Amino acid sequence: MTRAVLHVDMDAFYASVEQHDDPTLKGSPVIVGWSGGRGVVAAASYEVRNFGVRSAMPMSTALRLCPDAVCVRPRMQRYQEVSAQVFSVFREITPLVQGLSLDEAFLDVTASTALLGSGVDIAHRIKRRIRELTGLTASVGVAPNKLVAKIASELEKPDGLTVVPREKVRAVLDPLSVRRLPGLGRKTGARVEDAGIHTLGELRSAPDALLWPIFGRYSAWIRERASGVDERPVLPDMEDKSLSAEDTFEEDIADPRLLQRQLARLADLAGSRLRGRGLVAGCIGVKIRRDDFTTFTRQRAVAPPTGEGRAIGAVAAELLSRWLAANPATKLRLLGVVLTELTPAAQLGLFEDQRGPSRLDATLDEVRGRFGSQALRRGNTIE
Fold this sequence. Notes:
By secondary structure, the protein is of the alpha+beta class. The chain has 15 helices and twelve strands. Residues 347-356 have low confidence and may be disordered.
């Protein structure tokens, strides 16, 4: 049976969610991210990309390139909700789903083709179902392996579908820029071009004299990559090992009361994410970064494991209080809440003292799920 691998990538995911939820943003140059001096672009709509704005770019640079851009603060809980819908579509097709992020995954649909049709038929089905459930578009690459599928999904964005049969892999890849090779990196890509190699076809056939100074003993491997050779399996998602919520402040904070309020917000967010995945945590920690970028962590085991928001917030607050007492008047750049030793909440019955989601948590989660993450907030998170 011919192997069929799909790479599905949502189009400008965060920005597209914002444009879908707020129709007044449709057609506008939208940047998702914090607009302060330290902010970076989390996502850019296709309209603002025309000005050269890209993800991970400093917000100050992005706004110089497009002064009329509309800046929207990220809503991670909302993006996770939509992501869950998208991944539910994937798992309707195959259990072999390897998530790369909230908006991107590999699927091995080889065993599904006997029932659902060819890889192309399955790709059309996935795109249609995602649009029906979320109102958003996805681009899909269909190929005999992960590497070629990922390259293919980028070729016709947005809302694209690119198919690369095994017998046409070289014909499709050879004319492409070396910058299309996943993992090459901007600096290495520049070195390759400086060596006179501009396409994947040229990279595939380049002699050691050109490749060895750049890639050393990996030269043969890079030729295989440029040829579209990739034997890696699609690995189903592993169980979550940790979950966190953190924030870098626009200005350093030294006020303990304000820091505790920020921490309470992050603990609430982390707890909500934990319960949304049906998990409980056996260890609660805090991440603390000073203004000089020195980072500290403090953690405590809890028994039995918990998903209760008040318990998570109380442990996190005590850990931060102890650190602040030992480091008075310290300015902090970042705070985070980290939950580890995760287990399914369904296993709570194994413990004599159950500490799952409280009625308050359940109400908060239900209201936020229906009306958005800011619809209902705990009092200690409100400034």
